Amino acid sequence: MKYGICNLSVIPLRAEANDTSELVSQVLYGELFKVLEYRKKWSRIRLHSDGYEGWIDSKQFVLLNEEDYTSLLKLPIQLASDLVDFITTSENQLISICLGSNIHTATYLKHSFGGKSFSGILPKQKLVETALLYLNTPYCWGGKTPFGIDCSGLTQMVYKLNGYKLLRDASEQATQGEVLSFIEESEPGDLAFFDNEEGNITHVGIIMQDNYIIHAHGKVRIDRIDHSGIFNYELNKHTHKLRVIKRVV
What we know:
- The protein has about 250 residues and is mainly beta.
- It has four helices and 20 strands.
- The protein starts with a strand and ends with a strand.
- The relative contact order is 0.13.
């Protein structure tokens, strides 16, 4: 078994081994993963953080041995807390990184970081505050950064920055936590899931106070939520049909 670490700001994780394949997620600076299949140009990996699998360019990461991989997993997690920051390499070059990058692994790469970071488990009320950092981020299928993010990428990153683990896709996240019967039972930071006409869960957002929700739809935005779903005042209609509310924290 081979192992790897992302030594660049953000790299695409694709469904298939080619540059035109669907972007299913992204790998942020400092993230660790297992290399399930290593080829000259492409490698199939499984991220340690959420078990998500896909293909990345073999030139865009550093291979690790098992001993180093295991040692890095034992380090206390520290995550970059500014929207954009920088890592300095041993050659005194700068690498831009973004919110949520794993900077506790920088020393292994002989990089240094002097910015602000999050660590540990934060109170639940911090979830909405963190989500607001992504406000107006453009929607990007498979995205996980302030420059482009999808609905489940938003919820996963917000929870990650507060010390909680969520799976990657909305349908997977819907398997976590405790079901709430009514919106009135929900608290800021709870997750609301929405389904399509076939009954498949395809969207997720973070509940705020006073029946508002923050979610990624065109951009990260704040809308109203009621028993029917999400109501968009700009369009004057419901855009998503509510399926279930879950409490993960």
